[in-house]
Protein backbone atom coordinates (compact mmCIF):
# COMPACT_ATOMS: atom_id res chain seq x y z
CA UNK A 1 0.00 0.00 0.00
CA UNK A 2 1.19 3.53 -0.76
CA UNK A 3 2.29 5.62 2.18
CA UNK A 4 -0.45 7.63 3.88
CA UNK A 5 1.64 10.76 3.43
CA UNK A 6 0.92 10.62 -0.31
CA UNK A 7 -2.83 10.60 0.41
CA UNK A 8 -2.86 13.69 2.60
CA UNK A 9 -4.31 16.91 1.19
CA UNK A 10 -2.14 19.96 0.66
CA UNK A 11 -3.60 21.61 3.75
CA UNK A 12 -3.03 18.45 5.84
CA UNK A 13 0.58 18.28 4.72
CA UNK A 14 1.02 21.85 5.95
CA UNK A 15 -0.27 20.97 9.41
CA UNK A 16 2.42 20.75 12.05
CA UNK A 17 2.23 19.77 15.67
CA UNK A 18 2.54 22.76 17.93
CA UNK A 19 6.06 22.90 19.26
CA UNK A 20 4.75 24.61 22.34
CA UNK A 21 2.29 21.76 22.94
CA UNK A 22 5.22 19.36 22.86
CA UNK A 23 7.11 21.50 25.34
CA UNK A 24 4.08 21.65 27.62
CA UNK A 25 3.94 17.86 27.80
CA UNK A 26 7.04 18.16 29.96
CA UNK A 27 5.04 20.18 32.47
CA UNK A 28 2.81 17.21 33.34
CA UNK A 29 5.55 15.74 35.50
CA UNK A 30 4.66 15.49 39.18
CA UNK A 31 6.02 18.38 41.24
CA UNK A 32 6.05 20.91 38.38
CA UNK A 33 4.59 24.32 39.16
CA UNK A 34 3.19 25.38 35.80
CA UNK A 35 2.51 28.97 34.78
CA UNK A 36 2.13 27.72 31.22
CA UNK A 37 -1.52 26.93 30.52
CA UNK A 38 -4.23 29.54 30.12
CA UNK A 39 -6.43 27.58 32.48
CA UNK A 40 -9.13 28.91 34.78
CA UNK A 41 -8.72 27.85 38.39
CA UNK A 42 -10.90 24.80 39.21
CA UNK A 43 -11.65 26.42 42.58
CA UNK A 44 -13.47 29.09 40.56
CA UNK A 45 -15.92 26.66 39.00
CA UNK A 46 -19.39 27.19 40.55
CA UNK A 47 -19.89 23.48 41.08
CA UNK A 48 -22.91 23.66 43.41
CA UNK A 49 -24.78 26.03 41.10
CA UNK A 50 -23.87 24.04 38.00
CA UNK A 51 -25.11 20.91 39.77
CA UNK A 52 -28.42 22.68 40.44
CA UNK A 53 -28.70 23.82 36.82
CA UNK A 54 -27.92 20.34 35.50
CA UNK A 55 -30.66 18.93 37.75
CA UNK A 56 -33.02 21.68 36.60
CA UNK A 57 -32.35 20.94 32.92
CA UNK A 58 -32.85 17.21 33.47
CA UNK A 59 -36.06 17.82 35.41
CA UNK A 60 -37.61 20.39 33.03
CA UNK A 61 -35.92 20.15 29.62
CA UNK A 62 -34.29 16.73 29.29
CA UNK A 63 -36.11 15.71 26.08
CA UNK A 64 -34.85 18.79 24.26
CA UNK A 65 -31.45 19.15 25.93
CA UNK A 66 -30.42 15.56 25.16
CA UNK A 67 -31.42 15.89 21.50
CA UNK A 68 -29.59 17.37 18.52
CA UNK A 69 -29.97 21.13 18.34
CA UNK A 70 -29.99 23.74 15.61
CA UNK A 71 -26.64 24.64 14.09
CA UNK A 72 -27.00 28.31 15.06
CA UNK A 73 -27.58 27.40 18.70
CA UNK A 74 -30.31 27.23 21.36
CA UNK A 75 -32.64 30.16 20.61
CA UNK A 76 -33.19 31.10 24.26
CA UNK A 77 -29.43 31.26 24.78
CA UNK A 78 -28.98 33.34 21.63
CA UNK A 79 -31.63 35.80 22.81
CA UNK A 80 -29.99 35.95 26.23
CA UNK A 81 -26.70 36.75 24.48
CA UNK A 82 -28.38 39.50 22.44
CA UNK A 83 -29.64 41.01 25.70
CA UNK A 84 -26.26 40.55 27.39
CA UNK A 85 -24.37 42.27 24.57
CA UNK A 86 -26.68 45.28 24.93
CA UNK A 87 -26.63 45.36 28.73
CA UNK A 88 -22.92 44.77 29.29
CA UNK A 89 -21.22 46.04 26.12
CA UNK A 90 -23.65 48.61 24.67
CA UNK A 91 -23.92 46.52 21.49
CA UNK A 92 -27.32 46.58 19.79
CA UNK A 93 -27.83 43.41 17.77
CA UNK A 94 -30.40 40.71 16.96
CA UNK A 95 -30.78 36.96 17.06
CA UNK A 96 -29.85 36.63 13.37
CA UNK A 97 -26.52 38.27 14.21
CA UNK A 98 -25.80 35.72 16.95
CA UNK A 99 -24.53 32.14 16.68
CA UNK A 100 -23.24 29.61 19.20
CA UNK A 101 -19.99 27.76 18.52
CA UNK A 102 -17.99 25.01 20.15
CA UNK A 103 -15.52 27.34 21.80
CA UNK A 104 -14.09 30.46 20.16
CA UNK A 105 -11.50 28.30 18.43
CA UNK A 106 -14.25 26.81 16.27
CA UNK A 107 -15.44 30.32 15.44
CA UNK A 108 -11.93 31.22 14.28
CA UNK A 109 -11.79 28.07 12.18
CA UNK A 110 -15.19 28.74 10.59
CA UNK A 111 -14.32 32.37 9.87
CA UNK A 112 -11.08 31.28 8.23
CA UNK A 113 -12.87 28.57 6.27
CA UNK A 114 -15.46 30.91 4.77
CA UNK A 115 -13.22 33.97 4.26
CA UNK A 116 -9.78 32.72 3.25
CA UNK A 117 -8.41 31.29 0.03
CA UNK A 118 -4.83 30.00 -0.28
CA UNK A 119 -2.48 32.96 -0.44
CA UNK A 120 -4.83 35.41 1.31
CA UNK A 121 -3.51 37.47 4.21
CA UNK A 122 -4.70 38.08 7.76
CA UNK A 123 -3.29 41.02 9.68
CA UNK A 124 -2.83 40.84 13.45
CA UNK A 125 -0.67 42.08 16.31
CA UNK A 126 2.67 40.64 17.37
CA UNK A 127 2.69 38.77 19.67
CA UNK A 128 -0.65 37.12 18.94
CA UNK A 129 -2.84 34.20 20.03
CA UNK A 130 -1.30 30.84 19.12
CA UNK A 131 -4.63 29.34 18.05
CA UNK A 132 -5.02 31.97 15.34
CA UNK A 133 -1.80 30.92 13.65
CA UNK A 134 -2.70 27.25 13.30
CA UNK A 135 -6.14 28.14 11.96
CA UNK A 136 -4.84 30.56 9.33
CA UNK A 137 -2.07 28.26 8.18
CA UNK A 138 -4.56 25.38 7.84
CA UNK A 139 -6.25 27.45 5.10
CA UNK A 140 -2.87 27.97 3.39
CA UNK A 141 -3.16 31.69 4.08
CA UNK A 142 -0.55 34.13 5.38
CA UNK A 143 -0.22 36.07 8.62
CA UNK A 144 1.37 39.50 8.78
CA UNK A 145 1.92 41.30 12.07
CA UNK A 146 2.09 44.79 13.51
CA UNK A 147 4.06 45.25 16.76
CA UNK A 148 2.39 45.96 20.10
CA UNK A 149 3.32 48.58 22.62
CA UNK A 150 1.97 48.94 26.16
CA UNK A 151 -1.39 50.09 24.74
CA UNK A 152 -1.87 47.38 22.16
CA UNK A 153 -1.32 47.33 18.42
CA UNK A 154 0.63 50.32 17.07
CA UNK A 155 -1.99 52.25 15.10
CA UNK A 156 0.59 54.35 13.27
CA UNK A 157 2.28 51.21 11.94
CA UNK A 158 -1.08 49.60 11.20
CA UNK A 159 -2.05 52.64 9.13
CA UNK A 160 1.25 52.56 7.24
CA UNK A 161 0.84 48.84 6.56
CA UNK A 162 -2.73 49.18 5.29
CA UNK A 163 -1.75 52.09 3.07
CA UNK A 164 1.03 49.98 1.53
CA UNK A 165 -1.23 46.96 1.14
CA UNK A 166 -3.95 49.06 -0.50
CA UNK A 167 -1.45 50.57 -2.93
CA UNK A 168 -0.29 47.10 -3.88
CA UNK A 169 -3.84 45.69 -4.01
CA UNK A 170 -3.02 43.21 -1.23
CA UNK A 171 -5.39 44.23 1.54
CA UNK A 172 -5.98 41.57 4.21
CA UNK A 173 -9.21 39.56 4.26
CA UNK A 174 -9.61 40.55 7.90
CA UNK A 175 -7.77 41.99 10.89
CA UNK A 176 -7.70 39.95 14.10
CA UNK A 177 -7.24 41.53 17.54
CA UNK A 178 -7.71 40.67 21.21
CA UNK A 179 -8.17 44.27 22.43
CA UNK A 180 -8.81 43.57 26.12
CA UNK A 181 -6.20 41.80 28.31
CA UNK A 182 -4.64 40.34 25.21
CA UNK A 183 -3.33 36.80 25.09
CA UNK A 184 -0.36 36.66 25.54
CA UNK A 185 0.68 40.21 26.48
CA UNK A 186 -2.16 41.15 28.86
CA UNK A 187 -2.35 44.69 27.38
CA UNK A 188 -5.61 46.55 26.76
CA UNK A 189 -6.21 48.94 23.88
CA UNK A 190 -7.54 52.27 25.26
CA UNK A 191 -10.69 53.98 23.98
CA UNK A 192 -9.07 56.50 21.67
CA UNK A 193 -6.90 53.88 20.00
CA UNK A 194 -9.96 51.63 19.53
CA UNK A 195 -11.68 54.53 17.77
CA UNK A 196 -8.68 54.96 15.47
CA UNK A 197 -8.60 51.24 14.67
CA UNK A 198 -12.29 51.22 13.78
CA UNK A 199 -11.86 54.27 11.56
CA UNK A 200 -9.09 52.46 9.69
CA UNK A 201 -11.37 49.45 9.20
CA UNK A 202 -13.99 51.76 7.70
CA UNK A 203 -11.50 53.63 5.53
CA UNK A 204 -10.13 50.44 3.99
CA UNK A 205 -13.46 48.55 4.03
CA UNK A 206 -12.16 45.72 6.21
CA UNK A 207 -13.62 43.18 8.60
CA UNK A 208 -12.28 43.22 12.15
CA UNK A 209 -12.42 40.04 14.24
CA UNK A 210 -12.54 41.13 17.88
CA UNK A 211 -11.75 38.18 20.15
CA UNK A 212 -12.81 38.94 23.72
CA UNK A 213 -12.43 35.96 26.07
CA UNK A 214 -11.30 38.05 29.04
CA UNK A 215 -13.23 41.33 28.76
CA UNK A 216 -15.47 40.62 31.76
CA UNK A 217 -12.50 39.71 33.96
CA UNK A 218 -11.48 43.26 34.89
CA UNK A 219 -10.06 43.57 38.42
CA UNK A 220 -9.39 47.30 38.46
CA UNK A 221 -9.44 50.39 36.29
CA UNK A 222 -12.18 51.77 34.07
CA UNK A 223 -14.20 49.50 31.80
CA UNK A 224 -13.40 49.92 28.11
CA UNK A 225 -16.22 48.94 25.76
CA UNK A 226 -15.41 46.56 22.93
CA UNK A 227 -14.77 47.96 19.47
CA UNK A 228 -18.03 46.26 18.47
CA UNK A 229 -19.88 48.90 20.54
CA UNK A 230 -18.96 51.59 17.98
CA UNK A 231 -19.68 49.36 14.96
CA UNK A 232 -22.18 51.35 12.88
CA UNK A 233 -21.25 49.55 9.65
CA UNK A 234 -21.54 45.91 10.78
CA UNK A 235 -17.89 45.18 10.05
CA UNK A 236 -16.81 43.90 13.50
CA UNK A 237 -17.15 40.19 14.26
CA UNK A 238 -17.19 39.80 18.03
CA UNK A 239 -16.16 36.49 19.63
CA UNK A 240 -17.14 35.75 23.24
CA UNK A 241 -16.87 32.60 25.34
CA UNK A 242 -18.09 31.07 28.59
CA UNK A 243 -14.81 29.17 29.02
CA UNK A 244 -13.19 31.83 31.21
CA UNK A 245 -16.30 33.14 32.98
CA UNK A 246 -18.15 29.88 33.75
CA UNK A 247 -16.39 26.64 32.82
CA UNK A 248 -14.39 25.60 29.73
CA UNK A 249 -15.73 22.04 29.80
CA UNK A 250 -19.03 23.18 28.28
CA UNK A 251 -17.18 24.41 25.15
CA UNK A 252 -19.83 27.08 24.62
CA UNK A 253 -18.95 30.35 22.89
CA UNK A 254 -20.72 32.87 20.70
CA UNK A 255 -20.16 34.96 17.60
CA UNK A 256 -21.88 38.29 17.01
CA UNK A 257 -21.54 39.68 13.52
CA UNK A 258 -23.10 40.29 10.10
CA UNK A 259 -25.98 37.88 9.41
CA UNK A 260 -24.68 37.10 5.91
CA UNK A 261 -21.34 36.01 7.33
CA UNK A 262 -22.95 33.98 10.13
CA UNK A 263 -25.11 32.18 7.56
CA UNK A 264 -21.98 31.02 5.72
CA UNK A 265 -20.38 30.01 9.02
CA UNK A 266 -23.49 27.97 9.81
CA UNK A 267 -23.15 26.06 6.54
CA UNK A 268 -19.48 25.41 7.29
CA UNK A 269 -20.31 24.32 10.85
CA UNK A 270 -22.80 21.75 9.54
CA UNK A 271 -19.87 20.02 7.89
CA UNK A 272 -17.86 20.09 11.13
CA UNK A 273 -20.09 19.15 14.07
CA UNK A 274 -23.73 19.80 13.01
CA UNK A 275 -24.37 21.65 16.27
CA UNK A 276 -22.63 22.60 19.50
CA UNK A 277 -23.22 20.76 22.77
CA UNK A 278 -26.99 21.09 23.25
CA UNK A 279 -27.02 20.04 26.87
CA UNK A 280 -24.26 22.50 27.72
CA UNK A 281 -26.17 25.30 25.99
CA UNK A 282 -29.23 24.58 28.12
CA UNK A 283 -27.16 24.60 31.32
CA UNK A 284 -25.44 27.86 30.38
CA UNK A 285 -28.78 29.47 29.53
CA UNK A 286 -30.29 28.42 32.85
CA UNK A 287 -27.26 29.83 34.70
CA UNK A 288 -27.91 33.18 32.99
CA UNK A 289 -31.68 32.97 33.43
CA UNK A 290 -31.38 32.25 37.17
CA UNK A 291 -28.92 35.16 37.61
CA UNK A 292 -26.00 32.94 38.63
CA UNK A 293 -23.44 34.07 36.07
CA UNK A 294 -22.50 37.59 37.14
CA UNK A 295 -22.29 36.90 40.88
CA UNK A 296 -19.92 34.11 39.88
CA UNK A 297 -17.86 36.46 37.68
CA UNK A 298 -17.53 38.81 40.66
CA UNK A 299 -16.05 35.93 42.68
CA UNK A 300 -13.66 34.98 39.85
CA UNK A 301 -12.38 38.55 39.65
CA UNK A 302 -11.72 38.65 43.39
CA UNK A 303 -9.82 35.36 43.24
CA UNK A 304 -7.77 36.24 40.15
CA UNK A 305 -6.84 39.71 41.39
CA UNK A 306 -5.44 38.11 44.53
CA UNK A 307 -3.39 35.71 42.41
CA UNK A 308 -2.19 38.44 40.05
CA UNK A 309 -1.08 40.52 43.03
CA UNK A 310 0.75 37.52 44.50
CA UNK A 311 2.63 36.92 41.26
CA UNK A 312 3.54 40.60 40.83
CA UNK A 313 4.79 40.77 44.42
CA UNK A 314 6.84 37.59 43.99
CA UNK A 315 8.35 38.86 40.75
CA UNK A 316 9.24 42.21 42.33
CA UNK A 317 11.03 40.37 45.14
CA UNK A 318 12.84 37.68 43.17
CA UNK A 319 13.25 38.64 39.49
CA UNK A 320 16.41 40.46 38.39
CA UNK A 321 16.17 44.22 37.91
CA UNK A 322 16.70 43.94 34.16
CA UNK A 323 13.52 41.89 33.74
CA UNK A 324 10.48 43.87 32.58
CA UNK A 325 6.81 42.97 32.86
CA UNK A 326 3.37 44.52 32.58
CA UNK A 327 0.69 44.94 35.25
CA UNK A 328 -2.56 43.77 33.63
CA UNK A 329 -5.81 45.16 35.01
CA UNK A 330 -7.57 41.87 34.31
CA UNK A 331 -7.37 38.63 32.37
CA UNK A 332 -5.04 35.72 33.06
CA UNK A 333 -1.52 36.62 31.91
CA UNK A 334 1.64 38.56 32.69
CA UNK A 335 4.12 39.14 29.86
CA UNK A 336 7.83 39.15 30.72
CA UNK A 337 10.73 40.58 28.69
CA UNK A 338 14.28 39.55 29.54
CA UNK A 339 17.56 40.87 28.11
CA UNK A 340 18.03 39.88 24.46
CA UNK A 341 20.93 37.68 25.45
CA UNK A 342 18.48 35.29 27.14
CA UNK A 343 16.63 32.82 24.92
CA UNK A 344 13.59 31.56 26.81
CA UNK A 345 13.24 28.53 24.51
CA UNK A 346 16.77 27.40 25.38
CA UNK A 347 16.06 28.15 29.03
CA UNK A 348 12.79 26.18 29.13
CA UNK A 349 14.28 22.69 29.78
CA UNK A 350 16.36 24.16 32.61
CA UNK A 351 13.22 25.65 34.15
CA UNK A 352 11.43 22.30 33.90
CA UNK A 353 14.44 20.63 35.51
CA UNK A 354 13.88 23.06 38.38
CA UNK A 355 10.17 22.13 38.48
CA UNK A 356 8.70 25.31 37.04
CA UNK A 357 7.25 26.05 33.61
CA UNK A 358 6.08 28.96 31.44
CA UNK A 359 5.16 29.49 27.80
CA UNK A 360 8.02 30.44 25.50
CA UNK A 361 7.24 33.88 24.06
CA UNK A 362 8.58 33.02 20.62
CA UNK A 363 5.58 30.74 20.10
CA UNK A 364 3.34 33.82 19.85
CA UNK A 365 5.30 35.42 16.99
CA UNK A 366 4.57 34.14 13.47
CA UNK A 367 8.00 35.33 12.35
CA UNK A 368 9.80 33.52 15.17
CA UNK A 369 10.96 36.66 16.99
CA UNK A 370 10.43 37.37 20.70
CA UNK A 371 13.09 34.91 21.81
CA UNK A 372 13.67 36.84 25.05
CA UNK A 373 10.00 36.83 26.16
CA UNK A 374 7.69 34.52 28.12
CA UNK A 375 4.06 34.33 29.17
CA UNK A 376 3.10 33.58 32.76
CA UNK A 377 -0.39 32.50 33.80
CA UNK A 378 -1.42 33.46 37.33
CA UNK A 379 -4.98 32.12 37.48
CA UNK A 380 -4.41 28.38 37.91
CA UNK A 381 -1.79 27.98 40.63
CA UNK A 382 -2.32 28.44 44.36
CA UNK A 383 -0.77 31.51 46.00
CA UNK A 384 1.83 29.31 47.66
CA UNK A 385 2.72 27.74 44.31
CA UNK A 386 2.98 31.19 42.76
CA UNK A 387 5.55 32.32 45.31
CA UNK A 388 7.53 29.05 45.13
CA UNK A 389 7.36 28.90 41.34
CA UNK A 390 8.46 32.49 40.79
CA UNK A 391 11.39 32.00 43.16
CA UNK A 392 12.45 28.89 41.24
CA UNK A 393 12.07 30.66 37.90
CA UNK A 394 14.06 33.67 39.11
CA UNK A 395 16.97 31.39 40.02
CA UNK A 396 16.90 29.85 36.53
CA UNK A 397 16.87 33.32 34.94
CA UNK A 398 19.79 34.45 37.14
CA UNK A 399 21.80 31.37 36.18
CA UNK A 400 21.03 31.89 32.50
CA UNK A 401 22.05 35.54 32.65
CA UNK A 402 25.29 34.69 34.42
CA UNK A 403 26.19 32.35 31.55
CA UNK A 404 25.41 35.05 28.97
CA UNK A 405 27.73 37.70 30.39
CA UNK A 406 29.96 39.12 27.71
CA UNK A 407 33.71 38.55 28.39
CA UNK A 408 34.48 42.28 28.61
CA UNK A 409 32.13 42.56 31.59
CA UNK A 410 33.80 39.78 33.53
CA UNK A 411 36.48 41.10 35.87
CA UNK A 412 39.54 38.94 36.26
CA UNK A 413 41.41 39.35 39.54
Name the helix and strand elements from N-terminus to C-terminus, one letter apiece.
HHEHHHEHEHEEHEHEEEHHHEEHEEEH
- Total domains, how many? 2
Q: Which regions contain 5 or more consecutive residues with pLDDT less than 50?
A: 406-413
Under CATH, the topology of the largest domain is which?
Answer: Aspartate Aminotransferase, domain 2
Number-wise, the strands total 14
Radius of gyration: 22 Å
Q: Tell me, what's the shape? A: globular
Q: Hey, roughly how much beta strand do the residues contain?
A: 5-15%
Helical fraction equals 40-55%
Discrete helix count: 14
Shape-level CATH architecture of the largest domain: 3-Layer(aba) Sandwich
The end-to-end distance, rounded to whole angstroms, is 69 Å
Average pLDDT, rounded to a whole number, is 93
Summarize the main sheet: 8 strands, mixed
Structural class: alpha/beta
Spatial order of strands in the largest sheet: 2-9-8-7-6-3-4-5
List the topology elements.
Blueprint: H1 10-14, H2 19-25, E1 33-34, H3 47-60, H4 62-65, H5 75-89, E2 98-101, H6 103-115, E3 121-126, H7 130-138, E4 142-149, E5 152-153, H8 155-167, E6 174-177, H9 191-203, E7 207-211, E8 236-241, E9 253-256, H10 259-270, H11 278-289, H12 293-318, E10 324-325, E11 333-337, H13 344-353, E12 356-357, E13 359-360, E14 373-377, H14 383-403
Parallel strand pairs: 1-12, 3-4, 3-6, 6-7, 7-8
Antiparallel strand pairs: 2-9, 4-5, 8-9, 10-11, 11-14, 13-14
Structure description:
- This protein is α/β, with parallel strands linked by helices and 413 residues long.
- The chain has two domains: 149 residues, Aspartate Aminotransferase, domain 1; 231 residues, Type I PLP-dependent aspartate aminotransferase-like (Major domain) (Aspartate Aminotransferase, domain 2, 3-Layer(aba) Sandwich), CATH 3.40.640.
- The chain has 14 helices and 14 strands.
- α7 links the parallel β3 and β4.
- α6 runs parallel beside α7.
- It is globular, with a radius of gyration of 22 Å.
Amino acid sequence: MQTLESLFSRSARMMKGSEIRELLKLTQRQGIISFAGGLPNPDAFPMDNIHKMVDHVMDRHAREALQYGTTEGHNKLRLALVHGMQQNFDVTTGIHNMAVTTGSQEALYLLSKVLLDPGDTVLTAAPTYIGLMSTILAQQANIECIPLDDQGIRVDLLEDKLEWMARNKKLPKFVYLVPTFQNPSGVTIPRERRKEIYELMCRYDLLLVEDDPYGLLRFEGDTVLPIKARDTEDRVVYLGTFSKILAPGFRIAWTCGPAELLNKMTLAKQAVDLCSNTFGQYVVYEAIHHDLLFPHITEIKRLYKEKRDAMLAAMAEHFPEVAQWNTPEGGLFIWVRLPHSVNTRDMFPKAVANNVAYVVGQAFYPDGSGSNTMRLNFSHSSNEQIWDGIERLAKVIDQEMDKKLEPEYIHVY
